[in-house]
C-alpha cells in the first residue's frame, strides 16, 4: 500500500473532507487507509476546532480528502513501478 | 490443505503473461504515469500534477500539484454571479479516490 512505503514516522498534513487540516507525525495506516497521527496541530489559521489538548488522533479513512507528503521522502520511480505492478495484478 | 492450494493458484497466476495492451479504462491511466494530468474532483476542485501512482480506487499520488477551488459568490441585490478561483501549490499529494470525478491529460490551449 502506497502510504505505508516508509512514510511512517514522517510529518504529514491530512486534509479532511470537512476542510480541517491536521499536521502530525504518521504513526500508522491500515487497510482502510485509516490514519493514526501523533503530536498533532491544526494547520491553517486555527479557524477550526482548537484541538489544543489533543496529542494523538485516529482519522477514519473515508473522511480524508488529501494527505500532503514530504516530497523528498518519496521515491517517485519506486511508486511508479509499484503502481504498474499493482495495475497488472488487479487485472488478473 | 487449503493453504497449499492457494500457493499453487498464486504460482499459476504469476506464470501467466502480463499484458501491456490497453484493455480497460484503468489502463489509460497507466499510460499517464510520470506524465502531467488533470483531475476533476467533487466540490468544484481541480488538480494538475504529475501522476506517480494510482490504484483501482483511483487513489493517486501526484507531484508538483496545483489545486484550483472554484467558488460562486452571488450579489444579494443584483443576483450577479461572481466566479472566483483559489489556487495553491503542493509538492507531493495523496488524493483519496472517492473524491475523483475525471482524469485526463492536461487541457492544452492551441
From TrEMBL, chain A:
Coarse class of the protein's main subcellular location: nucleus
Biological processes, Gene Ontology terms: mRNA splicing, via spliceosome
Keyword Kinase: no
PROSITE patterns: SM (PS52002)
Compartment annotation: Nucleus
Domain Sm span(s) in chain numbering: 1-73
One Pfam family this sequence matches: LSM
One annotated GO molecular function: RNA binding
Keywords: mRNA processing, mRNA splicing, Nucleus, Ribonucleoprotein, RNA-binding, Spliceosome
Gene Ontology CC: catalytic step 2 spliceosome; Lsm1-7-Pat1 complex; P-body; precatalytic spliceosome; U4/U6 x U5 tri-snRNP complex; U6 snRNP
Quaternary structure and interacting proteins, as annotated: Component of the precatalytic spliceosome (spliceosome B complex). Component of the U4/U6-U5 tri-snRNP complex, a building block of the precatalytic spliceosome (spliceosome B complex). The U4/U6-U5 tri-snRNP complex is composed of the U4, U6 and U5 snRNAs and at least PRPF3, PRPF4, PRPF6, PRPF8, PRPF31, SNRNP200, TXNL4A, SNRNP40, SNRPB, SNRPD1, SNRPD2, SNRPD3, SNRPE, SNRPF, SNRPG, DDX23, CD2BP2, PPIH, SNU13, EFTUD2, SART1 and USP39, plus LSM2, LSM3, LSM4, LSM5, LSM6, LSM7 and LSM8.
Record's function text: Binds specifically to the 3'-terminal U-tract of U6 snRNA.
Family: Belongs to the snRNP Sm proteins family.
Protein name per Swiss-Prot or TrEMBL: U6 snRNA-associated Sm-like protein LSm2
From TrEMBL, chain B:
Role summary: Binds specifically to the 3'-terminal U-tract of U6 snRNA.
Keyword field contains RNA-binding: yes
Compartments, record wording: Nucleus
Gene3D superfamilies on file: 2.30.30.100
Protein name stated in the entry: U6 snRNA-associated Sm-like protein LSm3
GO cellular-component term (any): U6 snRNP
GO-annotated biological processes: mRNA splicing, via spliceosome
UniProt keyword list: mRNA processing, mRNA splicing, Nucleus, Ribonucleoprotein, RNA-binding, Spliceosome
Entry's family note: Belongs to the snRNP Sm proteins family.
Subunit structure: LSm subunits form a heteromer with a doughnut shape. Component of the precatalytic spliceosome (spliceosome B complex). Component of the U4/U6-U5 tri-snRNP complex, a building block of the precatalytic spliceosome (spliceosome B complex). The U4/U6-U5 tri-snRNP complex is composed of the U4, U6 and U5 snRNAs and at least PRPF3, PRPF4, PRPF6, PRPF8, PRPF31, SNRNP200, TXNL4A, SNRNP40, SNRPB, SNRPD1, SNRPD2, SNRPD3, SNRPE, SNRPF, SNRPG, DDX23, CD2BP2, PPIH, SNU13, EFTUD2, SART1 and USP39, plus LSM2, LSM3, LSM4, LSM5, LSM6, LSM7 and LSM8.
Main location: nucleus
Residue ranges of every copy of the Sm domain listed in the record: 24-109
Domain of life, per lineage: Eukaryota
Pfam families assigned to the protein according to its UniProt record, in alphabetical order: LSM
Gene Ontology terms for molecular function: RNA binding
Gene of this entry: LSM3
Amino acid at each position: 500500500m502506497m502510504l505505508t512505503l516508509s512514510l511512517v514516522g514522517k510529518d504529514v498534513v491530512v486534509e479532511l473532507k470537512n476542510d480541517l487540516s491536521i499536521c502530525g507525525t504518521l504513526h500508522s495506516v491500515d487497510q482502510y487507509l485509516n490514519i493514526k497521527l501523533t503530536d498533532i496541530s491544526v494547520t491553517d489559521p486555527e479557524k477550526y476546532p482548537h484541538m489544543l489538548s489533543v496529542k494523538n488522533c485516529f482519522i477514519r479513512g473515508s473522511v480524508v480528502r488529501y494527505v500532503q507528503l514530504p516530497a523528498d521522502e518519496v521515491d517517485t520511480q519506486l511508486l511508479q513501478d509499484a503502481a504498474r505492478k499493482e495495475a497488472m495484478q488487479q487485472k488478473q | 490443505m487449503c493453504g497449499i492450494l492457494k500457493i499453487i493458484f498464486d504460482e499459476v497466476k504469476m506464470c501467466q503473461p502480463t499484458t501491456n495492451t490497453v484493455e480497460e479504462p484503468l489502463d489509460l491511466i497507466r499510460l499517464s504515469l510520470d506524465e502531467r494530468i488533470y483531475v476533476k474532483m467533487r466540490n468544484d476542485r481541480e488538480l494538475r500534477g504529475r501522476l506517480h501512482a494510482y490504484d483501482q480506487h483511483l487513489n493517486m499520488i501526484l507531484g508538483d500539484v496545483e489545486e484550483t477551488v472554484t467558488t460562486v459568490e452571488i450579489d444579494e441585490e443584483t443576483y450577479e454571479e461572481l466566479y472566483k478561483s483559489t489556487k495553491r501549490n503542493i509538492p507531493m499529494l495523496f488524493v483519496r479516490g472517492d473524491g475523483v470525478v475525471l482524469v485526463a491529460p492536461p487541457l492544452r490551449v492551441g
